[in-house]
Design a protein that fits this description.
Blueprint lengths: L4 H7 E5 L5 E6 L2 H8 L1 H9 L4 E2 H8 L3 H13 L3 E9 L2 E8 L1 E6 L20 H24 L18 H22 L40
Parallel strand pairs: 2-6
Antiparallel strand pairs: 1-4, 3-5, 4-5
Helix pairs in contact: 3-5, 4-5
Length: 230
């Protein structure tokens, strides 16, 4: 006997939650960072690019469903996964979860007072100083991005990313000097400490050798402009 559509819906009810998934999520809570960095939980996050149930994940990762549920509850408690859909089969409810972002970055702020800080006594010509600058960018921009999303606004940012192959160390030094001079002139031209309503922006320019295991590419012309809020 064929069931009527109404009876089919009574036995299998599906409720979807259309929640946004971020391109990138900054993790600044130490407990959330600990949860995300555990190998199995990191694996589960990667498997949850699309919604999946604990039973499905258990098959994929080779763990018992109860253990997968334990890890999922921890990830959900720290806001790293979210409910995407609920399916009801008779008296049972199956929860499908999805990662809150396509990828994650742990902010140095999660390390508290031992986080990298360029304001500490560091040789400003060292690789350690460059890394500390990068860590500050993640910490500051991550916090600004969170505040902008909470306010429903976009964050104005500027990013320039390109590659350059120097013929010699002499050319590299000459490029550095010319770049420094150009930036100094631009800052002097546009900086106005007394501008009413003006907002200070941080400008960081870094250069480092390309790792040997990273394939070189044909570099397009540098194109950069501020991504202004809409």
């Amino acid at each position: 006997m064929t069931k009527s559509p109404q009876k089919i819906l009574d036995n299998k009810n599906c409720q979807a939650y259309h929640l946004p998934v971020l391109d990138l999520q900054i993790i600044d809570d130490p407990a959330a960072a600990t949860a995300a960095l555990l190998p199995m939980r990191s694996r589960l996050l990667s498997e949850l690019a699309l919604p999946a149930s604990a039973a499905t994940l258990a098959t994929r990762v080779g763990l018992a469903r109860q253990k997968v549920n334990y890890h999922l509850h921890a990830l959900e408690a720290h806001g790293l996964v979210q409910l995407a859909e609920e399916r009801k089969w008779g008296g049972l409810t199956e929860r499908l979860l999805v990662a809150t972002a396509a990828s994650y970055v742990v902010s140095p702020g999660a390390l508290g007072p031992v986080a990298a800080d360029p304001n500490r006594e560091i040789d400003r010509l060292s690789a350690s100083y460059l890394i500390a600058l990068g860590a500050r960018i993640v910490r500051e921009v991550g916090d600004l991005l969170r505040r902008a999303k909470e306010a429903g606004k976009r964050l104005a940012t500027l990013a320039v990313d390109t590659e350059i192959r120097f013929r010699s160390a002499t050319d590299r030094a000459a490029f550095s000097n010319e770049l420094t001079d150009a930036i100094t002139k631009l800052v002097a031209k546009y900086h106005d400490a007394a501008a009413p309503g003006g907002r200070v922006h941080r400008l960081v320019v870094v250069a480092h050798p390309l790792p040997q295991n990273v394939p070189q590419k044909s570099v397009p012309p540098v194109a950069a402009k501020f991504k202004e809020p809409s």
